[in-house]
Write a structure and sequence with these properties.
heterodimer; A: about 120 residues; mainly beta; 4-stranded antiparallel sheet; about 55% strand; B: about 120 residues; 7-stranded mixed sheet; 11 strands
Chain lengths: ~120, ~120
């Protein structure tokens, strides 16, 4: 079955620390990959996406992610986090073969940044 | 606000009652999705519409659940004979035909259901 696994459930960092959140998926075909963020009390918002081309993609607010096809991974990174990055982060995949556009989400990582 | 809107934002009901949630997608978005999210989990796909046609339903969607999108615009999700296990956040998302290849979904703020 298609699945998405996020390595860390809860991460606590101090401001200015570097961030890396792991994401692996199990699907043999071509996929689009996404990271969504949910700030407290807000709706899910797109951080960044990969669908083709350069495997290193840059998103909003200084986030980036690298698609490593051989490892089925799409890890999220930020060199220096801010208190305002406190949120829940979700990795998601969309198998192109399904042609529905539906997303399969990981269980999420809660990031807490201490000022 | 021209985003996806959902109503009501919160619903508390007693076990056995029926509830209905409404989703208004972004104008001209032809695809609409319903997801369910429980505490500590990521959103789980429930069902998907392209225009008014319901094209896919998850096994999570028991026969107590029904969704409609009668005119290809807003959608409703009804849960009959609610159970405590139905307590969750119900999320609606939509996507544009222009985003068919990149697949970005735009989410509403969700409708939180509590079944007592």
């Amino acid at each position: 079955a298609q699945s998405v696994s996020q390595h860390n459930h809860h991460v606590i960092l101090s401001e200015a620390a570097s961030l890396e959140l792991g994401c692996n998926y199990s699907y043999g075909g071509t996929v689009n990959l996404f990271w969504y963020v949910q700030y407290p009390g807000q709706h899910l918002q797109l951080l960044l996406k990969y669908f083709s081309g350069d495997p290193l993609v840059k998103g909003i607010k200084g986030f980036e992610a690298e698609f490593i096809k051989s490892k089925f991974s799409f890890n999220l990174r930020k060199p220096s986090v801010q208190w305002s990055d406190t949120a829940e982060y979700f990795c998601a995949v969309s198998p192109l073969s399904s042609n529905t556009g539906k997303l399969i989400f990981g269980q999420g990582t809660t990031l807490q940044v201490k000022p | 606000d021209t985003g996806v809107s959902q109503d009501p934002r919160h619903k508390i009901t007693k076990r056995g009652q029926n509830v209905t949630f409404r989703c208004d997608p972004i104008s001209e978005h032809n695809r609409l999705y319903w997801y369910r999210q429980t505490l500590g989990q990521g959103p789980e796909f429930l069902t998907y519409f392209q225009n008014e046609a319901q094209l896919e339903k998850s096994r999570l969607l028991s026969d107590r659940f029904s969704a409609e999108r009668p005119k290809g615009s807003f959608s409703t999700l009804e849960i009959q004979r609610t159970e405590q296990g139905d307590s969750a956040m119900y999320l609606c998302a939509s996507s544009s035909p222009r985003d068919l290849n990149t697949g970005e979904l735009f989410f509403g703020e969700g409708s939180r259901l509590t079944v007592l």
